[in-house]
Amino acid sequence: MPVPVQTTRVTPATASALARFNAASADEVIRTLLTCLNSHHWAHRLASHRPYPDLPSLLAAADEAAYDLSPDDLTEALATEALPPLPEDTYAAAHTALSAAYAAYEARFGHAFVICMDGMAADEALDHVLAGIRSRLTNDPDEERLVAAEELRRLARARLTGAIRGAGNCASNH
């Protein structure tokens, strides 16, 4: 009589990042999501709609939730945004000009300047940020909240993509 062979299903040592995201506790997922966009409403909404079949589905849900941010949600998200980093070799006069531009922006709109630089070459960052601040300083406050909300959506998308693809803490993708 043949001896029955017991087979066990071998689980890979590392599950895909999306599978880990889908299987993680709600608290853990919300903590991760809040590093991508500091809106509790946004984070809870994405966490509650798990599981996501693929990254494009998660990103589509993130975009939809970002478009639905209330004014209070937007204020919450903007309150924790940091200024975009500049390349280390940026000269001192550029830092001075940028500091003055940031101060003017924050005085006018009451929140940090946000801009998504995903995919931008490091040597273009300073010009892009300065041009963005200068052009956006001419916006009225309501128009600027719409622009800032769109930039936050783009930042959240880039950060979330980085987190799911295993790039580490998605808060570092400014």
User: What sort of overall outline do the alpha carbons produce when their principal axes are compared?
Assistant: globular
Number of helices: 8
Give the rounded overall mean pLDDT: 84
Low-confidence stretches: 1-15, 167-174
Strand content: under 5%
Distance between the termini: 65 Å
Look at the helices and sheets and give the structural class: mainly alpha
The Cα radius of gyration reads 20 Å
Order of helices and strands: HHHHHHHH
Quick one: how many beta strands?
A: 0
Largest sheet: none
Helix content: 55-70%
Short description:
Helix content is 59%, strand content 0%.
Write a concise keyword list for the protein shown above.
single chain; 174 residues; mainly alpha; 8 helices; disordered N terminus
Task: Write structural notes for this entry.
The structure is a single chain. With 174 residues, the protein is mostly helical. It contains 8 helices and no strands. It has helices at residues 17-23, 26-36, 40-48, 55-67, 71-79, 92-109, 125-136, 141-164. The chain is globular, with a radius of gyration of 20 Å. The termini are far apart. The model is unreliable at 1-15 and 167-174 (pLDDT under 50).
